[in-house]
Amino acid sequence: MQIDEQNPSPRVPAKIVFGARLRHAREGLGLSQEVLAEKAGLHRTYIGQVERGERNISVDSMERLADAVSLPLWDMLKPLSAA
Amino acid sequence: MQIDEQNPSPRVPAKIVFGARLRHAREGLGLSQEVLAEKAGLHRTYIGQVERGERNISVDSMERLADAVSLPLWDMLKPLSAA
């Protein structure tokens, strides 16, 4: 963990941030994990693991998931405290 | 490739963006690939491949490299046309 000078709480790992933002975006679109998996060409169980931050996901897979929820990838990696 | 509504040129894949921003940051810090590799606990040849966008790098490795050049990971995935 590192300390952000603007915000002295421990930093959340990027895969946790991505997973949380993916779940939020998916639910906001009213999509099931099954439907998102199909859109992104990935497995439903994999989506669940990614949303829980359990997978060391690759940049290509992150990009496919970002596309599937129509968000820019960089936006999905912003700290959870940010908008 | 997708079309960005703000900028109708074909989108650059995230791994190309990350690689270009990594090289720019590394060179800006005056670091060799060897030194960056040591800081990030990765191999020098791997750094070269990542900088050329040749590797489907994982989120954990991207985060280690972003830390090694003292940039937020999300910032390193912003479109190259952005600041």
- What is the annotated CATH architecture of chain A? Orthogonal Bundle
Query: How far from one another are the termini of chain A?
Result: 22 Å
Name the CATH superfamily assignment of chain A.
Answer: lambda repressor-like DNA-binding domains
Spatial arrangement of strands, main beta sheet of chain A: 1-2
Report the strand count of chain A. Answer: 2
Oligomer: homodimer
The CATH topology of chain A turns out to be 434 Repressor (Amino-terminal Domain)
What gross morphology of chain A would you assign?
A: globular
* Derived structural class of chain A: mainly alpha
Provide the residue-averaged pLDDT of chain A: 91
Determine Rg of chain A (CA atoms, Å): 13 Å
CATH class of chain A: Mainly Alpha
Proportion of strand residues of chain A: 5-15%
